[in-house]
TrEMBL record:
Organism in which the protein naturally occurs: Pseudomonas matsuisoli
Membrane topology, from the record: Multi-pass membrane protein
InterPro entries associated with the record: DUF423
Family from the record: Belongs to the UPF0382 family.
Domain of life the protein comes from: Bacteria
The protein, known as: DUF423 domain-containing protein
Entry keyword set: Membrane, Transmembrane, Transmembrane helix
Any one cellular-component term (Gene Ontology): plasma membrane
Lineage of producing organism: Bacteria, Pseudomonadati, Pseudomonadota, Gammaproteobacteria, Pseudomonadales
Length: 123
């Protein structure tokens, strides 16, 4: 799992930076200010949780366990659902994608809860 979490962290960090640059330079004139802000929110949360995945991978080296693995899985799912739905919402313009966003947010919250519980149980 450590390798998977590191690879997901690297992929999420890379694509987060690329999408942020794309928004700043390529979408500035194509999206409304509101949609650009929504897209940037997706980038922001993706980059934060790329770092969280990196932290989970490091923690799994020293304190492997089900809670740590679940935290990493929920962070990855949250990136996909939360940030992904915001990207689709702004680029495709189908507002129905917005219904997925809170599910991704709940995955982020679950990941942080699992990480906190893992920390609580550490010796």
């Amino acid at each position: 799992m450590i390798r998977l979490f590191l690879m997901l962290a690297a992929f999420s960090g890379f694509t987060g930076v690329a999408l942020g640059a794309f928004a700043a330079h390529g979408l500035k004139t194509r999206l409304s200010a509101d949609y650009l802000a929504v897209f940037q929110t997706g980038v922001h949360y993706q980059l934060i949780h790329a770092l969280a995945l990196f932290g989970v991978a490091l923690l799994a080296l020293y304190q492997p366990g089900k809670l740590v693995n679940t935290a990493g899985a929920l962070f990855a799912l949250g990136i996909l659902l939360f940030s992904g739905s915001l990207y689709l919402l702004t680029l495709v313009g189908i507002s129905r994608f917005g219904i997925v966003t809170p599910i991704g947010g709940a995955a982020f919250l679950g990941g942080w809860l699992c990480l906190g519980l893992a920390a609580w149980r550490m010796a």
